[in-house]
């Protein structure tokens, strides 16, 4: 995590977030849902990213944490979807392209918030405009979820409760929204 986030977050802070996650993992581990190593790794990564978001350190660290957390949620949701029977090699290549587009959109959502140089600011402003346009085209629930989570910093639990859906359904909506955003942005750059 330190390598992914750069030196914008002190290592000792990340260690403290990870320690809290380990203590929580001991009491919440369910062997029927995942292996201990997988569960602990996810808890630690998410705790570090959530801790950074809570502390609102620097705009750059917050942007990286938000983007990485979005990509992580997307990965977990997509990993639970089984391959379609009879997938050809072309189908797998196409699915990989859509996955990469979706990850790019998730990371872009987090990164548009931070800019440090005029060039970065201009590039991010263009990306922000493209994202805003694509977000506006999402179905209402997906749009609300994305706007409230990425732009207003609300937790998935809060948003799901107010939308009257479960957290797992909110994760599915998030994955659908991010995939749609990835496709929309990719089609604009072609």
TrEMBL record:
<dbReference type="InterPro" id="IPR007630">
    <property type="entry name" value="RNA_pol_sigma70_r4"/>
</dbReference>
<keyword id="KW-0804">Transcription</keyword>
<dbReference type="InterPro" id="IPR013325">
    <property type="entry name" value="RNA_pol_sigma_r2"/>
</dbReference>
<dbReference type="Pfam" id="PF04545">
    <property type="entry name" value="Sigma70_r4"/>
</dbReference>
<keyword id="KW-0238">DNA-binding</keyword>
<dbReference type="InterPro" id="IPR013324">
    <property type="entry name" value="RNA_pol_sigma_r3/r4-like"/>
</dbReference>
<keyword id="KW-0805">Transcription regulation</keyword>
<dbReference type="GO" id="GO:0016987">
    <property type="term" value="F:sigma factor activity"/>
</dbReference>
<keyword id="KW-0731">Sigma factor</keyword>
<protein>
    <submittedName>
        <fullName>Sigma-70 family RNA polymerase sigma factor</fullName>
    </submittedName>
</protein>
<feature type="domain" description="RNA polymerase sigma-70 region 4">
    <location>
        <begin position="134"/>
        <end position="181"/>
    </location>
</feature>
<feature type="domain" description="RNA polymerase sigma-70 region 2">
    <location>
        <begin position="2"/>
        <end position="57"/>
    </location>
</feature>
<dbReference type="InterPro" id="IPR007627">
    <property type="entry name" value="RNA_pol_sigma70_r2"/>
</dbReference>
<dbReference type="Pfam" id="PF04542">
    <property type="entry name" value="Sigma70_r2"/>
</dbReference>
<dbReference type="GO" id="GO:0003677">
    <property type="term" value="F:DNA binding"/>
</dbReference>
<dbReference type="GO" id="GO:0006352">
    <property type="term" value="P:DNA-templated transcription initiation"/>
</dbReference>
<dbReference type="InterPro" id="IPR014284">
    <property type="entry name" value="RNA_pol_sigma-70_dom"/>
</dbReference>
